[in-house]
Amino acid sequence: MVIVSLSGCIDELVPLETSSDIPDPSVYEFDAFLNKSQFNGSFPRTSTFYLSTNFSVKVVHIVDNESFLDIIPLEDPTKKDVDILSNIVIIGDYSANTESSLSLFQNYSREQNVSAINYTLSEKVIKGQKHIYLNFSEPIRGYVAYTMNVPRGQDFIHIAHTPSVVRMILPEGYTTGHYLIGRARPQPNMIYYDNKGRMNLVWYNMGAEKSALVKVLETIFAEEIQTPTDTVKIIGVKFYKKSAPFHLLVATVILSSFALIVIADYLKNRHKLRKLRDQIEAGEKWEK
Known about the structure:
This protein is an alpha+beta fold. It has helices at about 100-110, 210-220, 245-285; strands at about 1-5, 15, 45-50, 55-70, 85-95, 120-125, 130-150, 155-160, 165-170, 175, 185, 190-195, 200-205, 230-240, 240.
């Protein structure tokens, strides 16, 4: 059963028309990516974003004993009637029926049948930013996947909560990291290529990072300053074809050559004009 509702600034719930499309898990990759992600004896939320160039991204979350997902989408103001989320797939079970382990998530990753888990969708605007809440009837363990429309094409931004692990997988043949064309911000904790040749960027967002000022105060007062446990981090990546840096270099060489030709022609003409002026001035003096 799926119930969709909308919560506005005045917290009024308005029923929305639900989609009759049957969830299709075959379009997603369910990978038990849990390496180095243990946190206080359990697995924090691990979110994998399969980026594309068609203004959509496939998202797969690994959730361990969680009762909701807080999704902060990037909105396109020119498309008001487009569903931000589609093809929501849940594979797992309620936490009361399971125990957290790596093998559990590995088994779920091989499952291709959608689980009978009840959830509701609601929206709420907080400080001008839309939040989409995917609420479960009780805490669950497993995978939650969906397709999300994004407005920025090859420039993706995600607002991550702590603790969490974020992985972004670029399309085949694409890369990032060029200082002029674009790079990932902040610097990923790990970069590797999978068996499909795709670049994988990983951030271990396990807690609030202390600023330099906080560290100085801790040194002065010889006492640890506690930072908030529930914080957010903006993670962004601009990606492009692997050939883009070469094309940029070629374009730079061509433009530089053209600029040198223009400058050389300008200097040549200026020299001719100066010589002609000198001749004219010399002729005027001779006539006198």
